[in-house]
Design goal:
The complex is a heterodimer of chains A (about 50) and B (about 775). Chain A is an all-alpha fold and about 50 residues long. Chain A is about 70% helix and about 0% strand. Chain A has one domain. Chain B starts with 9 loop residues before the first helix and ends in a 26-residue tail after the last helix. The chains are: A mainly alpha (about 50), B alpha+beta (about 775). At the A-B interface, helix 1 and helix 2 of A face helix 3, helix 5 and helix 6 of B.
């Protein structure tokens, strides 16, 4: 029983982190162009902004 | 190597298409100010389809010095460009109080469009118009995520309760579940509550009413159980129901959204403004809405006429395909009336406006379309029809179980619990998923073949059709004249003619040039300088050996006689000093595979008809060639719409396939409609389906997929109802436990989804014969008109 006091918050926290990560990725536009991202991987030019 | 054909043909086309690019004023009007002198503008580039396309467009854009960022979105076929219109001035100009001073970078925004065009892709301005719909999708996906989190965690706790937790642990878990479920219910459930409330207020019912009642009751009865230390808590059912239903809702929305953005993004090239010539000769670019009757508007070669008017000065050939759907250009001179939306091909004109933009020919068409909106509005989606039956049955069932149990054992609390269990079990989870999943899969399948569907009900309607009406020019034919027997003409003559034709924007010249340099002949083109275009006649040029002329018979041979030119779209002559050298004959070509497709469709027992605005002999010739018996020629846009409406009234389900603006009212009036991507913008907006490839085989393919989808939807309904037949008696007898509810609900949802996915592997669909590779999307460079 005592274990549950730790384990349940830990489980919820981990789930919450996953949820937050998903919401963040949604907000930052990671799902905006699913097809384009697949192609960009195999084009060999330097896709980084010039640093 | 790249699959993109862009490039080779584009080199010479570039000069021509430059005039079809959005003007810098239009780009300026459409761009968003990001602050600090940065502007963003979105172009729609329908031709991109692979990694090489992305790279070449982005590289070309980044080479423009003022461009800060350029990113191609392959899914939406759009390019977002951020460019610097102003930069902070350097040095002593900076005033600490006034902030940095900005100076213009001097970039003409049309450079951006030109950079894209230089890679060989046609580009159009994209005006975001569905921002609200995008936002709703984002909200739905967020709600799916939140309810998914809640469902997973509550399920975790429920599993340990089911596997035998002691009473105090069970209570604790129930309380935690209640705490997790409450925010999810509010955040995720609001979509259903809003929708249910909206229809209940009007005294109607939809699928959201039983959903809203189901999730609310299950939550509050579970809360009540928890407070009284009971064991029948349905929090897991509440959360997982919400999760599955929101997935269905998000899919439904996504499907409608995707196609819509692709279609509306293709072209909105109606001139937003025009150059007004003042009394003192001043030139002023103004929005069309601000131009008054009687003002003089200058239109240069290659520009669209923005308003109805009368030609004051100049001569030109007009591309009037937008008005009558035919590709033969019309020659106009002073005193002729011109209609808004037509394209001046060969010469510049000054036009006195006789109507304001809102009274123009185009607005008339739009009014016709609005009046015609009939069959589609009356159609009720399968899901709504099912809900109409389902909701009352379920509610009656729950009510009667409550009364019967109450009277039977006198324990009204138990009776209430049974009634609630019935409502939870029958909550239309699988029904909510059954339709959208199938439609999303079907739409994806169509999308792969270059067919875009505007909304799910279009597929339901397409599956029911019993007759098809085709427009002629641009639909059964490509609407492009093609020279016949060009191979028999002396290649030297072809080289000269192509050299002359390269300088003209006239459709016959363009077609001649394309045929001469295209795949079939690949002949040399003699480059000829100093080519002069004479509107309404042809082109001429001085060469060492004399004066070459390419044009109609009268012009080329220098005849004075005003003999009839014959059919407008027929022949072009090449002459040297008035002596005829070669004659090129033209014919509009059928769409690839048109004959086979028509035969196919007739084989399926569909009634076929041709509706055309063209002259009667031409239409009968084509109809006879394709074997279509029913035909109507010389129809006005209103006649076509009337034909569709009368079919509708006769209770027949007509599919209209058409492309021109003149077809737009018919496209809206028909039960369901399809348009090629080469259609005018209004036509595309009015149609339910838009197909991107040249071949007409998109029509039987779309019908086939729609029928398969309809079949799967019915199967899914049968599965969902079959599950209820099994589960409802269990609930009615009072044996339903939260475990049974959760298991039954999840499995029924999964089965429905799995069944929908069968469409992907479905065999027996019409396959493209012969050709392995699907050609890249071909779009006619004719800009459309925006509504």
């Amino acid at each position: 029983m005592n274990m549950l006091v730790y384990l349940i918050p830990i489980a919820l926290l981990m789930g919450g982190i996953g949820l937050a990560a998903f919401l963040w990725s949604l907000k930052s536009g990671q799902y905006d162009d699913m097809d384009g991202a697949a192609w960009r991987v195999i084009t060999d030019d330097d896709d980084h902004p010039s640093s | 190597m790249s699959c993109c054909a862009a490039g080779s043909e584009a080199a010479l086309d570039l000069e021509r298409s430059a005039a079809l690019l959005p003007s810098s004023e239009e780009i300026r009007l459409a761009s968003r100010d990001l602050g600090e002198g940065l502007f963003q503008v979105d172009f729609s580039v329908p031709g991109v389809h692979c990694g090489t396309c992305i790279t070449s467009i982005e590289t070309a854009l980044k080479r423009v010095p003022a461009v800060e960022r350029a990113r191609v979105n392959l899914s939406t076929r759009r390019v977002g460009v951020v460019w610097r219109a102003k930069r902070p001035a350097e040095g002593p100009l900076i005033d600490a109080d006034a902030g940095p001073v900005f100076e213009d970078t001097g970039l003409d925004p049309v450079e951006l469009a030109r950079a894209i065009a230089s890679t060989g892709y046609s580009c159009h301005l994209f005006t975001p118009q569905d921002a609200a719909s995008d936002l709703l999708l984002k909200q739905l996906i967020r709600a799916v995520a939140v309810s998914g989190f809640a469902a997973a965690n509550i399920m975790l706790l429920s599993v340990s309760v089911w596997s035998g937790a002691d009473a105090s642990t069970r209570d604790l878990f129930h309380w935690i579940s209640a705490l997790i479920a409450a925010p999810a219910l509010i955040y995720g459930g609001r979509f259903f509550y809003q929708s249910a409330w909206a229809v209940l207020r009007h005294g109607r019912s939809n699928m959201d009413v039983p959903i809203a009642i189901g999730i609310t009751l299950s939550y509050f009865s579970s809360l009540w159980e928890t407070i009284h230390h009971g064991e029948h808590a349905y929090f897991d059912a509440t959360a997982s129901l919400l999760f599955f239903l929101l997935i269905g809702r998000a899919l439904d929305h996504m499907m409608r959204d995707r196609a819509r953005s692709a279609i509306s993004g293709l072209a909105r090239l109606n001139p937003r403004g025009a150059t007004v010539v003042g009394a003192d000769g001043s030139r002023d670019y103004r929005l069309v809405d601000d131009i008054k009757i009687g003002e003089i508007v200058a239109i240069s070669a290659g520009e669209r006429i923005a308003l109805d008017g009368v030609v004051v000065d100049g001569a030109s050939d007009l591309d009037v395909s937008i008005v009558n759907g035919e590709s033969a250009p019309r020659t106009v001179g002073p005193g002729d009336t011109v209609q808004a939306g037509t394209l001046s091909l060969t010469g510049s004109l000054t036009v006195r406006a006789t109507a304001q933009a809102r009274d123009s020919f185009l607005s008339e068409i739009i009014r016709l379309m609005e009046a015609a909106e009939g069959g589609k509005a009356r159609y009720r989606r399968i899901a709504d029809r099912a809900a109409q039956l389902y909701a009352p049955v379920v509610h009656l069932l729950a009510l009667s179980s409550f009364i019967v149990w109450g009277l039977y054992d006198g324990d009204w609390k138990h009776a209430l619990m049974v009634a609630i269990a019935v409502l939870i079990i029958t909550c239309p989870c699988a029904l909510g998923l059954a339709v959208p999943v199938v439609q999303v899969v079907a739409a994806g399948k169509l999308f792969q073949r270059g067919i875009m569907v505007k909304d799910g009900s279009a597929m339901e309607r397409l599956a029911l059709i019993d007759a098809i009406a085709f427009d002629k020019t641009g639909t059964l034919t490509l609407g492009r004249p093609v020279p016949v027997d060009i191979g028999k003409v002396n290649p030297d003559m072809v080289a000269i003619a192509a050299g002359l034709a390269a300088h003209s924007r006239h459709p016959l010249s363009q077609s001649l040039w394309r045929a001469a340099t295209g795949n079939l002949l690949r002949g040399p083109v003699r480059s000829i300088a100093g080519v002069k275009e004479i509107p309404g006649s042809g082109v001429e040029a001085e060469a060492p050996e004399g004066r070459y002329r390419l044009g109609n018979r009268r012009f080329a041979l220098g005849l004075n006689a005003s003999e009839a030119d014959g059919p407008a779209l027929s022949e072009v002559l090449l002459s040297l000093n008035g002596y005829g050298l070669a004659c090129f004959r033209f014919e509009d070509s059928l769409r690839p595979g048109a004959e086979a497709v028509i035969a196919d469709l007739r084989g399926e027992g569909l009634r076929l008809a041709v509706l055309s605005g063209d002259r009667s002999p031409v239409v009968s010739a084509l109809a006879a060639r394709l074997g279509i018996e029913e035909q109507q020629a010389e129809l006005s846009p209103a006649d076509k719409a009337r034909f569709c409406a009368s079919e509708q009234q006769a209770g027949r389900h007509l599919l209209m396939v058409g492309d021109g603006i003149n077809d737009a009212p018919a496209l809206s009036a028909a039960y369901v409609s399809m348009a090629p991507a080469t259609a005018a913008d209004v036509g595309r907006q009015a149609a339910d389906f838009v197909f991107m490839h040249d071949g007409l085989d998109a029509v039987p393919f779309a019908i086939d997929v729609s029928k398969k989808a309809g079949q799967l939807i019915r199967e899914n309904f049968a599965l969902a109802i079959g599950y209820n037949v099994f589960a409802v008696p269990v609930a009615l007898l009072g044996y339903a436990t939260p475990l049974i509810a959760a298991v039954a609900m999840s499995t029924s949802s999964l089965i429905v989804v799995a069944n929908a996915l069968r469409l992907n592997g479905a065999s027996g669909l019409v396959r493209r014969k012969g050709k392995g590779a699907v050609p890249p999307v071909v779009l006619r460079d004719v800009p459309g008109l925006a509504i």
